[in-house]
Design a protein that fits this description.
Number of helices: 3
Shape: elongated
Helix content: 40-55%
Low-confidence stretches: none
Distance between the termini: 76 Å
Strand content: 5-15%
Number of domains: 2
Structural class: mainly alpha
Mean pLDDT: 77
Largest sheet: 2 strands, antiparallel
Strand order of the largest sheet: 1-2
Number of strands: 2
Radius of gyration: 25 Å
């Protein structure tokens, strides 16, 4: 069995309301030797912050798209069923 190693930056407290912890796997070609650990943490925090805003900035429809589609489908089925019932029994 051959060993394999990945370089990982782990943030325990991200300061985000969405992310409790974050793991960042550094690219194989990433030169970590001349980068200070504080720079890695700063970049990881920037990425977390950027994605936190993207998640929070989604509109109502984007956040609830699945629920709205389900509700419209259910409502359509009820209307079609009621129409068929009324036509056949009255």
């Amino acid at each position: 069995m051959r060993g394999y190693q990945k370089k990982v930056v782990y943030l325990k407290d991200t300061g985000s309301s969405l992310f409790e912890e974050a793991y960042f796997i550094i690219k194989e070609d990433g030169r970590i030797g001349d980068v200070v650990e504080a720079d890695l943490v700063k970049e990881a925090n920037r990425i977390v912050e950027e994605h936190s805003h993207k998640c929070l900035s989604k509109g109502f429809f984007e956040r609830n798209k699945g629920k709205l589609i389900y509700a419209l489908g259910f409502l359509s089925a009820v209307i079609v069923s009621a129409t068929v019932y009324i036509i056949n029994y009255f």
